[in-house]
Amino acid sequence: MNAPPITVATLGLPQVAESLVKSLLNVLDGRTSANWRHVEGFDADVVLCAPDSPFGALARRKEREHGRPLCIAVAAPGEAVREWTRVLHQPLRMHQFLDVLETLSSEIQSGQSGAAPKPPVESAAHHAHEAAPRNTLVAELRGLYQAVDTTERSYLIKAGGVSMAIDLPQGRCHVKSGFTTDTFERLMAVRGEVDVQPLPPGNQRDQLVGEPWIWLETLLWRLGLLGRAETDLGSDPDASTFGLRCWPDFGKIPSNPVHIKLTALLSKRELGIEAAAAMLNVASHDVRAFLRACACCGLLKVTALQRVVVAVPPQRKTGFGVFDFLRSALGMKA
Amino acid sequence: MDAREYKLIFTGPMGAGKTTAIRAVSEIDTISTEVANTDRAAFDKDTTTVAMDYGEVQLAGGSRLRLYGTPGQERFAYMWPILAKGSVGVIVLLDGSRADAVERLTLYVSRFIEVVGPERLVVAVGRLDPAIKPLAEYHRAAQQLGVTVPVVTADVRQREDVQMLLEILFTQVEVAGVLAELGAEV
């Protein structure tokens, strides 16, 4: 074979899986139509990633922007990989691995004869929740939020007369005039697609120093709370149950006792809106707003029920005794 | 109402902010057993707590909330269950600028969960540096222990942040009680 080898890297995989990949490459050496070589880092032609690792998110972003590397999720049994188009399931089997290598080498060879198609400006909504329409403000922000921690790039979003610089390495959103009620109202009024442009390299972080900012997740949370559309809550929120994947970061998002209560409940058990409201004696519109905010931040699990009736527990009295006593002594709001 | 005593534990590795957190909410001058730090390899700070920190909040009717900070060096880990037993809850403080912060989460959560249970634990990450470890890595480490515990960022120099951690802790215990009470009704 005179063609240069196709390079493959592993990112974020457990050590056992990484060793297995290297072994399989050794075993298959000379048995594939292309020559494959294992390398370290992102500059490979192909990367095998853990689906939920930050490396995986970064590699996929590079793939969308540059057409390379081709990304493959290496999924543990039962692991969700809905957003991935190429998947290898663990335990890795040689025939499955060989099939993937052969498919990829065909793709790469055909790509070499013609440039791989890619959009000039990436849609940051690529990772967004399936229910959210692409390219809307919330969908774009959510896509960017999911890339926080994994990329050094920053973006400029223009929407509703507001120009926001998104500093992804820091997870911050800057607006020169600051975030006032008017800013949020303008953003809430945005309909349809928004303009997202990468900030030119070398022109990014320095210009943002000193500008007012808020955390990107705080912005998403606020937009969720203020929003009206419940598309993120599934096709029929009243016939669904909701749970949380993990706690919102209340160190960044302004905390509120009702939201903390709902988080404590829904991180332990999936419930319908009315059931959660009754259990904690909070208004159901507050539960809906909270769920929208969680959905905006990618924290929500939605399960559609077979029937519309959702069990509603008996109404609880407010106040829990000793902890209200402690809150009062510590100067906290009961 | 009889006077009662409650205790709350702040734990975590050396330099995570336990002494600072107790000072943020204590009504009395905190009592610290700080000595010169001879373990500079573990953490570069001048002093460290060798027995415990202690603070206090007076409650109505003569009751008291006692605030304890565990020593930061892990060779004192034998004290952890003694301090935590019977407590209202445990706040695990981590220094997110340290490369081993996620491993420390696993250590502290797994040890304290045996004593107080998952609903009485809160994890707070200070000085989070996403370039070292994003918060998602902390969530994943907690989930790998098979439990859902709150993991949030916090600056324990700020009283409001310590109050936020306490609110999360108290609410968790209350909601766990509600769920246990309702049992199979839902």
Outline of this structure?
The complex is a heterodimer of chains A (about 325) and B (about 190). By secondary structure, chain A is α/β, with parallel strands linked by helices. Chain A has helices at about 15-25, 55-65, 95-115, 135-145, 180-190, 205-210, 215-225, 255-265, 275-280, 285-295, 320-330; strands at about 5-10, 35-40, 45-50, 70-75, 85-90, 155-160, 160-165, 170-175, 195-200, 215, 240-245, 300-305.
What amount of the residues of chain A lies in strands?
15-25%
Unreliable segments of 5+ consecutive residues of chain A: 112-134
Largest beta sheet of chain B: what is the strand line-up? 2-3-4-1-5-6-7
Would you tell me the overall average pLDDT of chain B?
Answer: 87
Unreliable runs of chain B? none
What's the overall average pLDDT of chain A, rounded?
Answer: 79
Q: Largest interface by residue count? A: A-B, 42 and 45 residues
Count helical runs of chain A. 11
The ordered string of helix (H) and strand (E) elements of chain B is EHEEEHEHEHEH
* Helix share bin of chain B: 25-40%
Strand order of the largest sheet of chain A: 2-1-3-4-5
How many β-strand stretches of chain B? Answer: 7
Strand content of chain B: 25-35%
List the secondary-structure elements of chain A in sequence, H or E: EHEEHEEHHEEEHEHEHEHHHEH
What would you call the quaternary organization?
Answer: heterodimer
Q: Which overall shape of chain B is indicated by the principal axes computed on the Cα atoms?
A: globular
- Spatial gap, N to C terminus of chain B: 34 Å
Secondary structure class of chain B reads: alpha/beta
Distance between the termini of chain A: 73 Å
